[in-house]
Design a protein that fits this description.
137 residues; alpha/beta; five-stranded mixed sheet; 5 strands; 45% helix; globular
């Protein structure tokens, strides 16, 4: 597992061979873990976001990164648990299929996580938010 959170980046890369260990450690540390997948298209990724992530308000339609960013920020801010891990199980698939969309998704998830971890922009309370991207081994 590679943790870049100290450098202002709340992204953690975990290889598939160590993923179960990473997941177990997060749960042992008290993180509320939310897992999602994407098999290779940004439209599929947004479907996963809408089904699995805490969004407030819920988003509709297809890909709208601005609406998603605001909705995810509010949704995580409203969670009771102050330790939150967003686990993207097969991030490498979108990275291979559509790298520009992968880069945008990674940046949005990282930005939201880091802002909430820093207690920025009127967050109700400081949270520890990590985004775990699982990479192929």
């Amino acid at each position: 597992m590679t943790d870049k959170s100290e450098a202002g980046n709340c992204i953690i890369w975990s290889d598939a061979n160590r993923f179960e260990q990473t997941l177990h450690q997060l749960k042992d540390d008290g993180f509320y873990v939310i897992e999602f997948e994407c098999r290779g298209s940004v439209i599929e990724l947004f479907r996963e976001f809408k089904q699995k992530l805490p969004l407030d308000p819920p988003i509709s339609g297809n890909v709208n990164w601005d609406a998603f960013t605001d909705s995810l920020w509010s949704g995580i801010n409203d969670l009771e648990n102050d330790l939150v891990a967003l686990v993207w199980r097969d991030a490498w698939k979108l990275r291979q299929a559509d790298n520009p969309s992968f880069e945008i998704a990674q940046e949005v998830l990282s930005t939201v996580a880091c802002q909430l971890t820093a207690g920025a922009y009127g967050a109700s309370r400081r949270k520890v938010v990590r985004v775990i991207l699982v990479q192929e081994t």
